[in-house]
Design a protein that fits this description.
homodimer, Arc Repressor Mutant, subunit A, Nucleotidyltransferase, domain 5, DNA-binding
Chain lengths: ~375, ~375
DNA sequence: TGCACTTTGGCAACAGCGTTGCTTAAGTGG
DNA sequence: CCACTTAAGCAACGCTGTTGCCAAAGTGCA
């Protein structure tokens, strides 16, 4: 059950268990999972799992798909998620382009559209373009909702943008509500780095990790204990302006010795190794402070010199591990996912709550979201 | 309900709601709280709250205590927690002394004992002394469990100590199990900074804060979104060895420019203002990265020059807020709680789960903890 | 081929949760 | 004194996961 301040009743109990089972089905993927395995993993009795899966099958969100080999008795029946039982839209609003994706319940990409878009154009133009792209992908399908990833800062709870660097005209604009009104769908807004981290969290097995994004700026998405850390005012992840060199070179933020400034200066000089070392020092600080399992790198600058950045960051973390007497350093890798990773992560803002992850942001999809509320079953 | 991977059944539902109500009763303190207010706060129906509070009253953990003024009808009956319905022991194992406290359900200090203790003495001596101090405080009362706060690093899940700086002989010692076997009570082990932070979390209203402890070393306890962050290997909060001055003075850890080294060197020179500024830079990094609401300072060194440290850290944070255009800087204060704060926080390791906070650590008190399982009600 | 055994999974009855509908208790105000 | 308001409990209820039992569907040996 979610750590919350609200009481739970029978429907909440039911949703919780259904979401848990759905999540295990999702994680199992094409391999599927048997009822008894579900019972072991959830701690529920086999009979309870039978009832829950029967409901899910009746709703169309799960299905039987073959059997396992017998171990001396009746063979186990394999259950799988039916990915087409629900879809979500993910929008990545970047400074110069808009990427829209349609994904199914399993998170599989069903459709993509990318169009150039000047974030400096008027509110109506941007909202209109975003809505058009979303609608063209939907194609009449029932949609759970729309997740939007935007450069920060912004307020995830209210869905309002703040002062985006270089685009002050968006300050205070209620993007979530504007888009929700235009599309008639639930919309959730979050920072691009958070969306990327969320996509990675649902993809991989790492319980705690940091996604470091180095593009025109430097930011981080933090997943701690399986949960995305947004902070009190959706401000968490401001990694670029961590001071690592007191009295160092001036940064655009007004301070000195910020990681971002040091990295970008090195990159501008063409010295990737130096940039990677600065990034590594920041990563080492993160690893120590938060005790994370993994560091993932992304962003256009990193993608332009993947090996150099991974090697440089890894070297700093290995040095740190040696000092601490740890057998193994925290692994470093380039974030998987390709060019639509952020948009796909944005879609996960919608899919997450269906599987019991997070709270669906400011806009609760339902209260609580239960599988029987999937629109397709309406 | 707790974000977990385990299914929930009716007893779990009942425990969850009972814990929620108990927590509201605890928070209300001497002022008490009415049934209808409980219903509003939990989202449960008034009738459900009536049933739950009736059970709690029957068990002895809650009681009626007067009525509020009428607002035109029957006046509300005020309910309060019965603090004496349960007690917990908190032990603070420090390098040179042991503090043991006995607290009641409300967290109120009932008894304290402090004895000198050399952590360098043998395992049996230390465990024996700890057990003796605990037993002398218990005095036949039914006890929920014993929380132990120790210098890190250690593993909170297994209850095993790691390589404590200066006391390598404890490496790998299963302190939790040793003490549990000796006392016949559930024991939970955690780092001293975590215990301190947990005590502060249950005391104040701040949802997210950092407790920075500057004594012989520098560490942090992080509470994010109401939950103590322990990290994957109970390693979170290693704040002292954050690099803030690349290529700076050498630190005992083998790196250069660690906050701890910079702070302690300044303190050694008697330059509290400089130490506070270094601490402030680290705090500013934290505030940006985690978007916390509050910074609290503690530890012997801080307590020796409270004003200097608070002013210095505050100045850095205010400068940071000005740069970011924020109206208000994150507030800084000395952590309240007095000399037994850590031991009291350790006791909260046991009390927390009763009120639905956290998971009770490696040793689950019960599975799940429900109020009817309080030993006193046996 | 037949029978014993193992394992899976559903049916039916059940205890217990919060909810609903209604009644009783205990005040205020004209 | 009576109408009204508000609080809180009783009883019946729907629905949850659980328990006890049984049918289905395999394996393996005689």
């Amino acid at each position: 059950m979610n750590r919350s301040n609200s009481g739970a009743n029978l429907p909440a109990l039911r949703s919780h268990n259904a979401a848990l089972v759905l999540d295990l089905l999702r994680t199992a993927g094409d391999a599927g999972i048997s009822r008894l395995e579900l019972a072991e993993r959830t701690g529920l009795t086999p009979q309870a799992v039978s009832k829950i899966t029967a409901r899910l099958r009746a709703e169309g969100t799960a299905t039987e798909a073959g059997r396992r080999a017998s171990t001396g008795g009746k063979p186990r029946t394999v259950l799988k998620l039916v990915p087409s039982a629900g879809h979500a839209i993910g929008l990545h609003l970047d400074r110069d382009e808009l990427t829209a994706v349609l994904v199914d319940l399993a998170g599989t990409l069903v459709g993509v559209r990318t169009v150039p878009l000047d974030l400096g154009a008027g509110h109506d133009t941007v909202v209109g373009t975003a809505a058009e792209q979303a609608e063209s992908l939907i194609g009449g399908r029932p949609i759970l909702g729309v997740g939007v990833a935007s450069p920060g800062p912004l307020d995830h709870h209210t869905g309002v943008l703040h002062r985006i660097t270089g685009f002050p005209q968006w300050n205070g604009f209620p993007l979530r509500d504007a888009l929700a009104a235009r599309l008639g769908l639930p919309v959730v807004l979050d920072k691009d780095t958070n969306a990327a981290a969320l996509g990675l969290a649902l993809r991989g097995p790492a319980d705690s990790f940091a996604y470091l994004h180095l593009g025109t700026g430097l930011g981080a998405g933090l997943v701690l204990g399986g949960t995305l850390l947004r902070g009190s005012r959706t401000g968490a992840g401001e990694f670029g302006h961590q001071t690592i060199l007191l009295g160092g070179p001036a940064c655009g933020c007004g301070a000195r010795g910020c990681i971002e400034a040091l990295c970008l200066m090195s990159v501008a000089r063409g010295d990737i190794a130096a940039a990677a070392r600065f990034l590594g020092v920041g990563a080492a600080n993160l690893v120590g402070l938060l005790d994370i399992d993994r560091v993932l790198l992304g962003g256009r600058t990193v993608m332009g010199a993947q090996d150099g950045f991974v090697r440089g960051v890894r070297a700093v973390l290995e040095e740190r591990a040696r000092r601490g007497g740890d057998a193994r350093a925290v692994p470093v890798a380039v974030a998987p996912g390709g060019p639509h990773a952020v948009a796909e992560g944005a879609a996960r803002l919608i899919l997450g709550p269906v599987f019991g992850h997070g709270d669906g942001g400011g806009t609760r999809l339902q209260a609580p979201v239960r599988s029987s509320d999937l629109p397709i079953l309406g």
